[in-house]
Request: fold
Amino acid sequence: MPLCTITLLALKASIPEFLKGLKHSPIKPLVTARAIRWIIKPTTLSKESLLDQPWPWDLLTIHEGAEPTWSDDMSLMIQHIWSIEAGIPSSITSSFPFTNARLLHPDPSEVPALTGPLSFPPKACSAQSLELDNELREWISSGAGPKGAVSMLNLLAFKPGKQSQYLKYGNAFAESVGSRRGGLAKLVGKIIPGSCSDVWDEMALAHYPSLEHFADMLASEDYQAANHEWRFPSLRDTCILCTSELDLQLSGDSEKAKL
Reply:
């Protein structure tokens, strides 16, 4: 199973400046995305490394292989790096560029319609259990988030003996509750032991056609039934970072780059 490295970058330089350097470097990530906001924050694992720092995360990159060696010029643009390694099946990575391009730039006819419950969402006190609370709904409704497709980075740590229970949630997500809103776990892998000081078990990068589709899923009864029966009870800790993928082909033009 090929090794991939998931990296979060806090930059000294502007994002367009860093992307311009990345475009002309030998480093070719599978994914380059702007970090937007935490949907779920870790409660214990990697909390200090991911949250209790003075800098905001700017970019997510996912590379095949170990963490790349940044050139001196690129290193000068980086404030801080956090990374973790995962084994992702070659059956996923080999076709990923083509699959991802279709997901990020779909034919409009391929994007599912919203299913409707967003106007009357269930009441939730917090998004930490992956429910649509008022704060998250208002942020999405305000239009402050990215337009178009979003990619949610998930880190997962399972309770002892509960991984098979989470698999039932994964099946429900793929077969119905996620897929009917355009949700797709497009990268999934097992965390390499020792690649991080904390013991995460799996990672996933989930695609949604828009933030509205993500909210539509969270507000639905069928999704929350699967969430509360299989997902939430199986997790010892988790976090979800909302990101918006960037087009390196446009990175030299700050007017056109998708930022």
Summary: The chain is about 30% helix and 25% strand.
